[in-house]
Design goal:
Layout: E1 2-9, E2 15-22, E3 30-34, H1 42-53, E4 57-61, H2 77-92, H3 94-108, E5 114-119, H4 121-132, E6 137-141, E7 158-163, H5 171-180, E8 185-189, H6 205-223
Parallel strand pairs: 3-4, 3-5, 5-6, 6-7, 7-8
Antiparallel strand pairs: 1-2, 2-4
Length: 229
């Protein structure tokens, strides 16, 4: 596996960093990994490397670089406050965020079909990217705010993952998405927010494993151009 930090350029000329990992051998396709509110931190870099380990070129764009270059944080209360403040700014500039995601997609599109997976705020961004950009598959984890863009429909196969004990995403919002888009796989786990992150107290290994298997299955079917698994 080879890991690198790149500088990407968005359509408006903004330059920003991205963390990329490439698998051994020919990649099956590519995956854009969209950060939580905590930036491209150790957890997100680890996820990029895990996707590379199972055969995909993976890249995580630093989506806060427009407002806080090189920002990354842990999971303490102060970190949460900083991350939420930056998320508010980013959401006010969502078109720019999506443009940066598209630059990351273009940076790995040479290897084949491209999927997108995101966590926390990245789950929301993943949904919007699936609706507006040229991805071939999308998997969003506990993305709050999807209900606010629910009139937009993904243009690629999409699955979403939520915890039934997530204090920041009421289940009625989840059910709204399910009702509006019956073709989306909406999965609810016995878990809280951030259940996929093994650096957080809300980590749930069972929910993580099941959601991960569903995401891998989606990417295997959508990105590998019909190869045998």
């Amino acid at each position: 596996m080879m890991q690198t930090t790149l500088t990407l350029t968005a359509a408006d000329g903004h330059t920003f960093s991205a963390y990329k990992a490439e698998p051994e051998g020919t990649p099956f396709g590519a995956v854009v990994v969209v950060q939580e509110i905590f930036g491209v931190n150790a957890h997100i870099r680890d996820l990029v490397e895990r996707w590379a380990a199972v055969g995909y070129t993976a890249i995580a764009p630093a989506l806060y670089d427009r407002w806080a270059p090189s920002f990354e944080a842990g999971y303490g209360p102060g970190d949460v406050d900083k991350g939420r403040s930056l998320k508010a700014i980013a959401n006010e500039n969502l078109e720019k965020v999506i443009s940066d995601v598209d630059a990351a997609r273009a940076a790995v599109a040479d290897v084949g079909r491209v999927g997108v997976v995101g966590y926390c705020w990245g789950g929301f961004v993943t949904y919007v990217a699936a609706c507006r950009l040229d991805f071939q598959a999308a998997s969003g984890y506990y993305g709050g705010g999807i209900n606010e863009v629910v009139d937009e429909a993904p243009k690629c196969p999409t699955i979403l993952h939520f915890g039934d004990n997530d204090g920041s995403i009421p289940l009625d919002q989840v059910e709204l998405v399910r009702a509006k888009h019956p073709d989306i796989g909406v999965h609810i786990y016995q878990a809280g927010h951030g259940f996929n992150c093994d650096m957080r107290g809300s980590y749930d290994p069972r929910a993580t494993a099941i959601a991960g298997m569903r995401t891998v299955q989606l990417f295997e079917s959508a990105l590998r151009r019909g190869e045998g698994v």
